[in-house]
Amino acid sequence: MRKRLVVLTGAGISAESGIRTFRDMGGLWEEYDVMEVASIEGWQKNPQLVLEFYNQRRRQLKSAKPNAAHLAIANAENDFDIYVITQNVDNLHERAGSSKVMHLHGELTKARPVNNPNNIIDIGYNDIKWGDNIDGYQLRPHVVWFGEDVPMLTEAAKIVQTAEIFAVVGTSLNVYPAAGLLDYAPKGCPIYLIDPNDVNVWRNDVTFIKDKASVGVPAMLKMIKDETP
Ligand code: APR
C-alpha cells in the first residue's frame, strides 16, 4: 500500500524554472508593491496595473518548464500516494505530470468575472485586457489576493491531516493561512523541509534538507523510499 505523501510547495520550487520568488533576493516584492499589484485594494485602485502584472507573469509562464523537483514529485506517484498543495499560481506541477494538485492561491491560467468567483474559465497564457468581460462583468485573474479568503484552506488542512509523510518545499512560510498547514501534520508524521536558505519553523520535529529543490526533492524522495518497507 503506497504511503500518503503530502507536499506543500511555494515559489522556491519554481525558482529553477526561472519563475521569480517573492521574498528572495530579486523577488517580485522587491520590484513591485505587493499591495498595489496583489491585493483587493490594489485592484480597486488601479485594475489595469494589476491586470498587466499578471499578464506579464502569465506570458513568462508559457516559456517556463517544470524542473527536476516538479518532475521528481510527479514520477514519485509510482511509489507514493502523493497530494500536492501549492501556494503557486503556476501550472508547473501539472505540466510535470502530477495528478493531484491543489492551488491554495489560485491559478494564472484561469480567470473569472468580478461578480461570480465560481464562474472560472481557462484562458491559458492569454492576457486579460481591461474590458474583457462576461455579461458585462470585467474578467479578473483567478488568484487569491491579499485581503481575500483562501477558499480551499479547510480542504487543504483535511488533506494534511491524512499525511503519513509531509514535505515542505520552497516556501518561506511567511504567509498565513497557508503556513499554518504545518500544524495539521499528524503527530509523529515525518516532516521534511527543503530550502537552500534557513526557514524558521516553530516545530522541532522537522528534518531540514538545506538545498535547492532540484537536488533536495529527489534526495528526499530517495531517502523516504529507501526507508519505506
Ligand atoms: N529551491 C528551493 N527553495 C528555494 C529556491 C530553490 N531553488 N530558491 C529560493 N527558495 C526558497 C527561498 O529561500 C524562500 O524560503 O523559496 C522560498 C520562497 O519564499 P517566498 O518568496 O516567500 O514565496 P512563498 O513562500 O511561496 O510565498 C507565499 O506569498 O506573496 C504571496 O501569494 C504569494 O503564494 C505566495 C505566498
From TrEMBL:
<keyword id="KW-0520">NAD</keyword>
<dbReference type="GO" id="GO:0036055">
    <property type="term" value="F:protein-succinyllysine desuccinylase activity"/>
</dbReference>
<feature type="domain" description="Deacetylase sirtuin-type">
    <location>
        <begin position="1"/>
        <end position="229"/>
    </location>
</feature>
<dbReference type="GO" id="GO:0036054">
    <property type="term" value="F:protein-malonyllysine demalonylase activity"/>
</dbReference>
<dbReference type="InterPro" id="IPR029035">
    <property type="entry name" value="DHS-like_NAD/FAD-binding_dom"/>
</dbReference>
<dbReference type="InterPro" id="IPR050134">
    <property type="entry name" value="NAD-dep_sirtuin_deacylases"/>
</dbReference>
<dbReference type="GO" id="GO:0017136">
    <property type="term" value="F:histone deacetylase activity, NAD-dependent"/>
</dbReference>
<dbReference type="InterPro" id="IPR026590">
    <property type="entry name" value="Ssirtuin_cat_dom"/>
</dbReference>
<keyword id="KW-0808">Transferase</keyword>
<dbReference type="InterPro" id="IPR003000">
    <property type="entry name" value="Sirtuin"/>
</dbReference>
<dbReference type="GO" id="GO:0070403">
    <property type="term" value="F:NAD+ binding"/>
</dbReference>
<dbReference type="InterPro" id="IPR027546">
    <property type="entry name" value="Sirtuin_class_III"/>
</dbReference>
<dbReference type="InterPro" id="IPR026591">
    <property type="entry name" value="Sirtuin_cat_small_dom_sf"/>
</dbReference>
<protein>
    <recommendedName>
        <fullName>protein acetyllysine N-acetyltransferase</fullName>
        <ecNumber>2.3.1.286</ecNumber>
    </recommendedName>
</protein>
<dbReference type="Pfam" id="PF02146">
    <property type="entry name" value="SIR2"/>
</dbReference>
